[in-house]
Amino acid sequence: MALIASISAILILIFIGMSVPFCFLSGSLIYIFMTGASTGTFVSTSYYALDSFSTLAIPLFMIAGTLMEKSGIARTLIDLAEMILKKTKGGMGATIPLVSCFFGALSGSGTATVTTLGSMMAPRLTELGWDKRYLAAFIAACGPLGYMIPPNMNAIIYTRVSSASVAALFLATIIPGILWTILYLIINRYTYHHWYNPENSVTAKIGMAGEQTAENGATAKSIIVEEQAADKLTIIKRAGVAFLMPVIIMGGIYSGIFTATEAGAVGCVYGLIVGVLIFKKMSLKEAFSSFIKTGSSLGSILIMFPMTLIFTRILVLNGVPGMVTQFITGISSNKYVIILIIDLVLILAGCFLDAGVLLLVFTPLLLPTAAIIGIGEIQLGVMMFVAVGVGTITPPMAMNLFITGKITGVEMMDMMKPLLPFLLFAAIPILILVTFVPAVSTFLPSLILSGGM
Amino acid sequence: GGGGNPAGSNSEEVTYTWKMGTIYNDPASRPDYNSFGLSMKKFVELVNEKSEGRIVIEPYYNSILGASQELFEQLRRGELEVFYGQPMANVDSRFGAWSIPYLFSDYDAVTKAIASPDAPLFKLSQEWVRENNAELIAVGPSVFRGFFNVKHPVATVQDLRDLKVRIYEDPIVNLFWKDICNATSMPYSEVYTGLQTKTIDGLEFADTSVVSSKYYELGNYFTDINWQWTSGGNIIIGKKFWDQLPEDLKEIVRECAWEAMEYQGIEEKKNKESAYSTLRECGVEIYELSDEERQGWIDYARSLDSRIREAIGPETYDAVVEAVKLAK
Amino acid sequence: MEILKKLDALAFKAIRTFAGIAMVLLTAVIIIQILARYVFKVSIGGIEETPIFLMMISVWLSAIIVAREDGHVKIDLIDLMIKNKKILYILKTVLRCLTTVVLGIYAKFALDYLISSMRLGDTTPGLGIPVWTMHSFVFISAFFMTLYYLINSIKAIKEVWEWR
Ligand code: NA
Ligand code: NA
C-alpha cells in the first residue's frame, strides 16, 4: 500500500513538473511516514551512492566532451562528414548520423552529442534548404549514437548498479551502434526528399531576390566548390588530429595502459593539447571554463544517484525485484515472451522516465529476471542503453526532442512525422535485435578481451 | 527493526524480524566456491528454524544494502541488525590486527586462536567490536590469500619486482605490497578486464576466489604465498538488537552462528582441494612454496612489523601476538 | 538585504570556481597516477581517494547553485497541457513549497547523520581524513538547497498574493 502510494506520488510529481531527484526523495519520505520505517539510512545511502571510482569517469568524459566543442575538433568532424557525403544523394542529411558517430567516438554522452550537433549543424543545414522539423527530429534520433559508439557514459552509470566491466560494455555497443547508424543512413536516403528543397536555401533565396541569372548562380556555386577543394587537405589533417583521440583512448584502454575511468582524464588532456596548442582555438582561460562548466553542473546530473538510490533501497527491502520477476515469469514461461515483456516495460518506462532513472532504478529490478532466462549483465546493459536511447525520443519525457526543440524552435508535436520512420525502422528494430541476438553485444567483448564473458 | 507481536504479552511470542547484509554472492545464483554466501544462508536457515519463527532473518546478498564499509556503519548506527563480513581497519585501527601478514600458520591455528567460542583472540575481538556498538557472535575460518598473476611464476618476494599488482585501500595491504611491486589501486569490478588488458598483471587473492571469479580463464600462475588471513567470516549483530533478545534466543543465535561458521570452514577446505585441480585443468600453473621460500616471505613480513605495530596500535599488536601464542 | 545579495553572489562564484578547480585537480591526480605507474613505476598510496572526494564535494556544493536557479532536472510537460498562466504559476508555487519541505526534512536527517558521524570518529581508508568532514557537505548542500527553495517559494507566494 505504502509502496504503491509512493510510486504513484513519484510519477505524478514528475508529471506535474517537480524536479525529478526530489520527486524520488518525496516518494521515499511518503513511504517512511506511512510505514514508520527508519530514516536512518537516507543520508548514508545518498553519501555512499557517489563514493565510487568508476563514477569519476562521468565528470571526466563530460569535460572532455566540452573541450571537443571548444577546441575546434567538433567543427572538424562536421567538415569531414560534409566532405565525404557532399556528392551523395541526401548527403547533407546523412552527415547527421555520421557526425554523431564521429562525435560519439570522442564523447560519452548522447545529450552532449545532440546539443553540439543541434547548435552547430541545424542552422547550417537550414540555410541549405533542409526542413527544420526533419533536422530537429533526426538530430534527436541520432543522440544515442553518441554513447553507442564508445566511450559510453551510460555504461558507467550501469556499472554502479551491476557488476559488469566498463571496458567490456564499451565494446558491446559498437556493433549495434554501427548497425543503428546504417539504418539511419538508409532511412534518410529514402525519406529526405520530403524534407529537402534546394529552392529554400539561403543562396537560392538571395538569388531570386537579386534577380540573379542562372549563369551567375552557377559561378557562385563553383566558387563554393573551389573553396571546399582548397580546404580538403586542411580538413583531412585536422580530422587526423581529431581521430587520434579515440585511438589513444580506446587503444589505451584495451592495451592496458589505463582503465576506462582513467581514459577520461587522458581525453581531457588530449582535448586541451589540441585546443590550446595545435588548433589554437581556445585560451587556457576558455579551457578552464570547460572545467567550471562541468564541475558546476555535476550537482544537477549526479544528484540523481543519491536521490534515486534511497528509493531503490526501499524497493529492494520490500522485495520488489522478486515481485517483478514473479510477475513477468507469471505471464509466460517462454523465454522469448519474457524478453519481449522486458522490452515493452523498458519502452514504456522510457516514455516517462529520464535516462539516469531508467538505468539506476530498473537495472536492479530486472537483473534477477534477466538472470533466470540467461541474459548476461553485458547483454542486459546493451538492452538498457538502447532502451534509454529510445526513451530519449519518445514523448512525453523525451530529453533529445526537448533539446533540439529548444535549439531549432520546432514544437515537439511537429517532429513526430519525420521522427516516426527513425523510431519504427531503426531504434526499435535495434532494441529487438539486441534482445534476441546476444552475440551482437557479446561478440566484440569476447573477441578483444579474449576469454569468456 | 524488532517488531513486537501485539497478540502476546509474554516474551515467548515476540518475534524479531532482522535484515542481514553482506557483500558476498547469493548462493542461489552462485552455488559454487561460495563458502561465505553458503554459510550465511545456513545461518539464516538455522536461526529461522531453531528459534521456531521467533527470529526471522532476511538475507541481503551482493552488496545490495551497501558495501562493507557502509554496512558496518549502518550496523553501528543501529540501522542494520546483522552484518556478515569484515569490519574495516579505517573504522577502528585494531581491526587491522586480524590481517597481520603471517599471523597464523594454517587453519588449525586460526581455529585455536580466533575461530572458536573460547579462543583468546575471539574474546579480544569481541571487546573491540563491543566498543563499536555491536556484538561479534562468531568468526569463521575464512580464507588465506595467495597470489595470482598472468606473467610468470612467483616464488620469492623479488619475483614481484616487474609486476603491476592490484591492491585496494587498506593500510596493511598497502604496507605489504607498495615496496615490493608496482602496486595499483583498482575497483574489484575492473580486475577481470584489467588482467585481460594487462593494466594489472596480478593480485593477491584466495585460490577459491580465483576460481569463482573465473580469473583462470586468463591462464597462468598461482602461488600459495598465503600472506594474509583475511577475517571475512564474521557474524555481527547491532548492540541494541542483541541486547533486547531474551537469553534463550541469544543462546540459539550463538549456536547457529558457530555452526554456520564451522560449515564455512568445511566448505572452504573442500573448495580449496577442488580449486587446485580445477585451476590445473584450466592450465594454471600452481606453485607451492617450499618451507625455505615461505620463510623468505615471512621474513619480509616480519621486517614490516614495527610499521604494522604502529599502524594497528602497539598495545593491540602486542596483545594479539600474545593471544595467538597463547592459543598454540 | 544588500549584504545578503552580495553574499549570495559571492557564494555562487566561489562554488563555481571551487568546482572548476576541483575538476582540474581531479584530472591532474588521475594523470599523475597513470604517469606514476608507467614512468616512475611507483605507487602513490592513499591519494586515489582524493579524486572521488573532489567529485563528491563538487556534486553536493554545485547542487546548491542549481537549486538557487530552480534548475534541477524536471519535465515541462504540464506547461503544454495547462494553458491558464495563473493556474500554472500556482501549481509551480505549490511544487516549490513542497520541495522546500522535503529538502528541509532531508537536511534535518543530514544534520543527525553528521552529528553521529562526528561521534563515531571514523577516518577514510586512504588518507585517514575524518569521515565527518565529507559527510558535512551533504548537510551543507541540503541546508542551502532548502534555503534557496524557501526563498524562491516566498517570492512566488508573494506574487500570487499580489494578484488578488
Ligand atoms: Na561515445
Ligand atoms: Na521518453
Along the chain, the helix and strand elements of chain A come as HHHHHHHHHHHHHHHHHHHHHHHH
Number of H/I helices of chain A: 24
| DSSP helical segment count of chain B | 12
Low-confidence residue ranges of chain B: 1-9
Instruction: Report the principal-axis shape of chain A.
Output: globular
Q: Could you tell me the number of beta strands of chain B?
A: 11
Low-confidence spans of chain A: pLDDT under 50, at least 5 residues?
210-227
Could you characterize what this model shows?
The complex is a heterotrimer of chains A (453), B (328) and C (164). Chain A has 453 residues and is mainly alpha-helical. Chain A has 24 helices and no strands. In chain A, helix 4 packs across helix 16 (284-301), helix 7 (110-127) packs parallel to helix 22 and helix 23 packs across helix 24 (438-448). Chain A is globular and about 70 Å long. Chain A starts with a helix and ends in a 5-residue tail after the last helix. Chain B has 328 residues and is of the alpha/beta class. Chain B has twelve helices and eleven strands. In chain B, strand 1 (16-22), helix 1 and strand 2 (55-60) form a beta-alpha-beta unit. Chain C is mainly α and 164 residues long. Chain C has one domain (2-162). Chain C has helices at residues 2-38, 49-68, 77-81, 85-120, 131-162. In chain C, helix 1 (2-38) packs antiparallel against helix 2 and helix 2 (49-68) packs parallel to helix 5. The model of chain C has no long low-confidence stretch (mean pLDDT 91). The interface between A and C is large, with 58 and 60 residues. The structure holds sodium ion (2 copies). One sodium ion binds next to helix 9 of chain A. Chain A: Residues 9-439 form the TRAP C4-dicarboxylate transport system permease DctM subunit domain. Chain A: It is a multi-pass membrane protein. Chain A: Keywords: Cell inner membrane, Cell membrane, Membrane, Transmembrane, Transmembrane helix. Chain A: It is found in: Cell inner membrane. Chain A: Pfam families: DctM (PF06808).
